[in-house]
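Handout, section 4.2: multi-component inputs.
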Amino acid sequence: MLTPILLIAVPAVFGLICLSLPAPRWRLAVMVTGAWVNLGVIIWSWLAPHAPLKDEFIGVDPLGHLIVTVIGVLFAATSLHFVGYQRAALISQRVFLACMLALLTALNLVCVSQNLGLLWVALEASTLAGTPLIYFHGGARALEAAWKFLLMNSVGIALALLGVFCTALASVGAGEAVTLTINSLVLHGRQLDPAWLRTGFLLMLVGYGTKMGLAPLHSWLPDAHGEAPAPISALLSGAVLNAAFLAILRAYQVCQAANLGEFAGGWLIVLGLFSMAVASVFVVGQRHFKRLLAYSSVDHMGILAVAVGLGGVASYPAMLHVLHNVFYKGALFFVAGILGHSYGSYQIANIRGALRRYPLTGFLLLAALFAATGLPPFGLFYSEIGILFAAASSGHWWTLAAFALFLCIVFVGMVTAVLPMAFGGHSEPEAAAHTWDGGERWRYRAMAAPACLLIGLGFVLAVYQPSFVKEALDQAAAALGPHDTGAAIATAYAAGGGR
Amino acid sequence: MNTVWVMVAFLEALAALALPPLLMSVIAKTKAWFGGRVGPPWLQPYYELAKLLRKNAVYSETTTWVFRAGPIISLAALLTAAALVPVLSNRSPLGFPGDVILVAYLFALGRMFTVLAAMDTGSSFEGMGASREVTFGAMSEPALFLAFVVLAVATGSLQLSQMLGPTLLDEWQIAGPAMVLVIGALLVVLLTEACRVPVDDPATHLELTMIHEVMVLDHSGPEFAYITYGAALKFMLLGSVLLHVAIPHPESFVFLDPVLRVVELVALAGVVGVIESAMARLRLNRVPLLLAGATVLSAIAVVIVFARRTL
Amino acid sequence: MTYHPAIDTILVLAMLLNLSMLASSRLATCIRLFAFQSFLLALLPVGGEIAVGELPSLHAYLIAAAAIGLKVILIPYVLMRILRSGEIHKDVEPFIGFTASVMIGALAIVASFAMASRLVLPMPPFSDLVLPAALSTIFIGLLTLVTRVTAITQVIGYLVLENGIFIFGLFLLNRTPLLVELGILLDVFVGVFIMAIVVYHIRREFDHIDTDLLDELKEV
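Output:
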């Protein structure tokens, strides 16, 4: 019980300190410390085994634990990157940093909340904390992005609340003992009223799907990712999207327990494939680097939805995908932040020859690109192959074909857009580029270091997966369904050669 | 016994036919009172009718028989409708299942001939008034019909005298909100059909803003008397439909019934007078919204009444 | 089944208020109508328990108090301040006309009754009008969101949607923990507060609060 309280209290306390401190320098230090202390708490929490949960509001279960860890790692890295990134902005630094920590608090609360209602409250809180972050640079475009983010997510998530209520209605028939906690709902799954649960799941899928960036309600996502500062984009795509994904997983868990796994999975596959299709359409020919990355996020969320929807054998690769996606998507946005500062633009046409001019950044860009598009030896390769195998073994041939097709299109679109950025010609005026010398040197390092860290971590975990990581992923995958997880692991490992 | 009832019905009908000008007078008095004036004498509308009936009619050379037939046919239509609508008691002189449709179309027939007569003059003012009258009439009709649907569902009858009968007392218990909505819709219909504020202003002096009054500018003498009386009669008929819905009288009232109804009608006229004094006429382009609102009120009432019977 | 005139009246009034919000051409009127609707709905948690013959619980009183405090007083106050803060357009400018939107709203109400008659609730609600009222309020909130261009009307649409969900939540008064319900209300309030700030910035940036003007960001 201590862990979840700490996970909420630590960022909240640091956020309050941030609000009360007078000096900007100290506030920044407090934000970074808060993020790292939070990571420390998470690492500490892994030392203890998962205790079975009863009917608590908050608690740590394998699924939530995995997501909270992923978010914590990304947040710690982002806090470092932000030290290099930060500069004069339109909104006050005090509010901004406090909002970052508030976002972390809300996301942690999403991960540890075991009650569907509390989960909703936390997720809506994360939307509210995220809005000022997007408005960092000020101006009409950032404003438009912030408005779209706030309104679309609020409305979407209002529908999800309706879904929560429908789920609660479904549980009324099962007796007074059933509460809205995941455990209780899963335990009494067979007694839930299927009609209301179906309605509830669909509403939650649409509502939380808006927040997760599932098409067709993804339209806020490229705008927000494109206009927010790079570290915030990293948080949005790595942390907020995953938290929304967790919310959908919770709904899926309940459906699975109520014997509606097929129904829920079917809709997840449909929305997932549609998201991948939309992403593949907009990735090709995209001119804005961060919007390109945003559509790549939509693509990856689609992949996750399809994987979960396939269920069974695909659950393990889905969790593997969650883990690795965060590293590379974070790294890509960090690299985008460096390139944006270096070239003063996020237009792909303006960024050329990064490998020649900024060797480290160029190298990181290529590494993150290959990792994010699922080339071996990076982790996403194994997870995507695992999902393909799972689709094949369960006979979802059309899903398999569409999945593979969209993967290929996104791969081609990403590579053709990014390779010229790394190698590139001499079209642009040399003087326009930033040189990062003298006093700026440390900024460059602070911004590049977290990217190195994330890519390195991802690479290590891909070539050598320690047993505790495997166990964590296993347990998280097992929480997704009553299926035989032994077979799942075997398949994923046969596919990926994990160890 | 039967003869007594016939006598009573005869007296009732006489009283009902004599009442409409008085109601107009009540409205005028109320408005005058609000304006701090004494107002015309109570019997002024009767004097005016008498005066008009004594006069000769003047006809424009461009008009045809349609112009002369208009007022007569519309008055005839309204008088026929008056025989079907229960006014001072729960009974009506005539009645058969389905007569509610006839009543609605008798109103429409009367309107059509007023409009045709107006168009027959060939004047642009009359044409404009006619176009407005038809537009607003067409928009208030759905509200009236849906209100009749509510009453038909509530009482299980299509005969107006039964639809407005004492069975409505039960309906107030079952679906009170629906009845309130119907009353709201009927009130708007009443104000529209009788050409009162906020839809039309009978007292205005600018032809451009009139609806009904501008249509009948060319009529004179007895025919204008028919029109004036017809408008008052229409007000009374729709008003008594409204009152029968709002305040259903149980059968046990018998002889008290007509007296109460007269008092209620006078009160209703007073309320309309208050509305006229308190409100300004709506902009012409907002009127459709009001009428759509009335239709919506009736529609919701229909839904509620149905829901209460099926859910 | 017995019918409670007061509850029925509140629910029907709430539905009519939705329509009048669609019909009214002034932002200030819209906000007042919303406040009135919220007030009526705030009476329902307590009224509903009285209607089924129970003594109202503390839970119900707290929800009612929180709803009145936030949705009847604070949110309208914040919105009115934004409205008065500058010479923004005080008129509602709909894509589709007022009469048409009222008609669509009425259709939504009829559709809600039709839907409600087919949905089987696991337990009898305290009035058979609750479900239609909830559904129609949700639909009309979405309609307002989609068809109105000014930022404030979109906020109002969101709030109406939220009110609809509030009515729906009445079924579950005793099943959702108090903490969660208060959290929901608080989230809504903070959300509207931030929206108001964003609206303020939009006004400063564009001299206008038409979200129509927010179309810089799109794929070419």
